[in-house]
Amino acid sequence: MKDLFKGALTVPNFITAVRIVLVPVFAVLYLKGELIPAVIVLAVSGLTDLFDGKIARRFNQVSALGKILDPVADKLTQITVAILLLIKFLQAESPVIHAFGYVFIVFLAKEGFMVLGGLAMLIVGLRPGAAELPGKIATVVFYTVMTVIFAFGPEVGALTSLWTMPEVLTGVLVVISAIMTLIAMASYVPGIKKQVGEFFAEKKKAKEA
Questions:
Q1: Which residues contact 177 (CB under 8 A, 6 or more apart)?
Q2: How far apart, in whole angstroms, are the C-alpha atoms of residue 87 and residue 148?
Q3: Predicted local distance difference test score (pLDDT) of residue 195
Q4: Are 10 and 66 in contact (CB under 8 A)?
Q5: Mean pLDDT of the chain
Q6: CA distance 152 to 140
Q7: 11-208 has which CATH code?
Q8: In the chain, where are the structural domains located?
Q9: Are 8 and 63 in contact (CB under 8 A)?
Q10: Region 39-50: what's the mean pLDDT?
Q11: Alpha-carbon distance 120 to 164, whole Å?
Q12: Most buried residue among 2, 12, 102, 124 by CB atoms closer than 10 A?
């Protein structure tokens, strides 16, 4: 725990903490019907996600706490967004939008798997690995697609008076983001497999010693 908080007072960690605070702010705004402010909050959250890691690497402010907080912020945001859009899509009058709503279960299942897997690793003394490139790409795609849907998606968007995205295009974007999410999840498997293998190998050596 002492090492976890060593060098934790950094700008990137502050930005990540703000991103975590923005999650309930976004949810409350959207549920209260304050759609435009909600979209702005989500867009700001996505932008801060892009910059906190870059700042950390550029100014050598990478910390153990930051490596944990950043994925926590991502997961909280993605779970919240997926739940809200799952509800909204399933309540939609359009059968096309309603059908694509079930795709959000993929996001929830993936995040549930990652959270439970991460907890299991922490319990046995392993530390979940940092996001791989596919994970980072999937996160960018997720924020972009969901912000666009919250802005222009049929029956859910805040700015549909300006332009309403076609229903099929909305569904296709959701599916693309879901596919990227599954690819990202698969990218963690080699690292996890390696850590678990090393863990059991060390235990075996300890027993034989």
A1: 107, 138, 141, 142, 145, 146
A2: 17
A3: 79
A4: yes
A5: 85
A6: 18
A7: 1.20.120.1760
A8: 11-208
A9: yes
A10: 88
A11: 43
A12: 12
